[in-house]
Amino acid sequence: MAAIAPQPVQIRCQNCQTPFTVPVWSFIDVGAQPELKGAFIAGQINMAACPSCGMGGMLATPFAYHDPGRQSLFVLIPQELNLTQDDAERFVG
Hints:
Elements: E1 7-12, E2 19-24, E3 27-29, H1 36-41, E4 47-49, E5 56-58, E6 63-67, E7 72-76, H2 85-92
């Protein structure tokens, strides 16, 4: 499978209101991008830190992770999104 790049998304710091852009991953295939496995395990995927005040945390965004070496695929859909069952199923495909 071909590598999929993150999408640049502009967000606003909830602390100081500074707008900034962060890379947001919706899908990672560590078979195609093995260098991302360590970042994922370390909790560094879809994290944001304000360049102005340093506040940040994990972004509430749907995310799929595939590790063909372990024959595993999982999907994270944060509860904060309040997606309907139909919307969640559409994301999973």
